[in-house]
Amino acid sequence: MREATLEKHTDNYTEDFVKLLEESFNQKFKAADLVEGTIVKIEKSGILIDVGGKTEAMLPLRELANLPFERPEDIVSVGDKKKFYILREENEEGQLTVSLKRVHHAQNWEKLEEIRKNEETIKVRVISLVKGGVIAEVFDLKGFVPSSQLRTGIPHESLIDQQLSVRVIEADPKRSKLILSEKLCLAEERKRIAEEVISKLEEDQVIEGEVVRLADFGVFIDIMGIDGLLPISEISWQRIKHPSDILSLGQKVKVKILNIDRELNRISLSLKRMEENPWVKIEGKFTEGQVIKGIVNKITNFGAFINIFPGVEALLPVAEMGEGNVNPYEELNLNEEIEIIIKRFTPQERRICLSIRDLNNQNSSAETSNDQVSE
After folding, report:
1. Residues 67-86: pLDDT tens digits?
2. Does domain 119-185 have CATH number 2.40.50.140?
3. Could you tell me if 211 and 247 are in contact, meaning their C-beta atoms sit under 8 angstroms apart?
4. pTM above 0.85?
């Protein structure tokens, strides 16, 4: 009975041992991971490390240390237990290639991955501009901040050597891919300070800010740490194609607060309202029937917009360009100065209608009258 029990325990022990041995052999080692191991042998061709795999891992001497050395024994000894960086996964013989000098490098990647998981904010230094963003240095590694993740939206020279507060979006040591975001960090910071800043602001208040981003639809102005929107329609009384026609990144500018949404913590701004409305200025300066000169600002299928006063455009309809069917693109040129007559003048409604046809008819009538007087 005792012999049977002993034999049973022996069989169980053997099964457990085989199972553990198989698990150790089936352990997955991946490139760029850190693995613990013990130095078992130092040879001229390299150092053998027991990492629990099918065979000992190979540590090439060139991967032992960053500083030069005469003998590997000056750096390590048999029996030393250390962490090693996996350079290459198992070959056909099941042997890994590892590195000791890259452990610090790998630990930095691990540190960045922890920072990403914990959604922490870190400081990085911009070292260069590249297509589509900037390169920043952090923990002896290089990370990429895409233009879409920059506060400015556009990389510019003044960013070099500047520190940015960023969040880690991706940290992949296998592909040496480190993606950072300034916007995510700023979004959190904005939440913290928005209510405090907005509580100090009032509508119609004039305040100075800095241009931090240009877009087709407008400009974002930094107001005491939060971004206010200056729509393109509020930049100038004159028609502009893009905000960059008037403003540039980093420019300091005084603006008027148009609207404050305290629930959404949003601010709408105006630059053009820092000046008097030109439509108010022209009241009394023009009258219907007056012949004036203007500059062609825009040509469309239905007519042309003519600048007759700084910030004031009047419409010259196609029907008022001449007799019969007229092609506005053939009749007029952009930036051309033309002579026209004011047909309708209602500045209160911001509407002014111009005419070349009436001017031509008026001139023809005057010539006819002069011919009759001469006869």
Report:
1. 788 889 988 999 999 989 88
2. yes
3. yes
4. no
What is d(CA 241, CA 297) in angstroms, rounded to the nearest whole number? 11
pLDDT band at residue 5 under the 50/70/90 scheme: low
pLDDT at 25 over 80: no
Please check whether the domain covering 2-101 is classified as CATH 2.40.50.320.
no
Q: Which two tokens stand for residue 257?
A: 């607060």
Residue 348 has pLDDT above 60, yes or no: yes
- Beta-carbon contacts of 16 under 8 Å, excluding residues fewer than 6 positions away, are none
Contacts of 161 (CB under 8 A, 6+ apart): 125, 126, 127
Contact (Cβ atoms closer than 8 angstroms) between residue 47 and residue 97: no
Give domain limits for the chain.
2-101, 119-185, 200-274, 283-365
The answer to whether 246 and 240 have CB atoms below 8 angstroms apart is: yes
Angle at 11 between CA 5 and CA 12, to 5 degrees: 90
- The CA distance from 193 to 134, in Å, is 27
Q: List the structure tokens of 343.
A: 């047909």
Q: Class assignment of domain 200-274?
A: mainly beta
Q: Which residues sit opposite 267 in a β-bridge?
A: 260
DSSP at 319 = G
Closest alpha carbon to 91 in 120, 54, 138:
54
- Looking from the CA of 86 toward its CB, the CA atoms found within 13 Å total 23
Q: What is the pLDDT of residue 323?
A: 83
Give the rounded percent of residues in the chain with a pLDDT score beyond 90.
Answer: 46
What is the token pair recorded at 182? 């300034």
Q: Nearest to residue 309, comparing CAs of 340, 355, 269?
A: 340
Match domain 283-365 to its CATH number in 3.40.50.2300, 3.40.640.10, 2.102.10.10, 2.40.50.140. 2.40.50.140
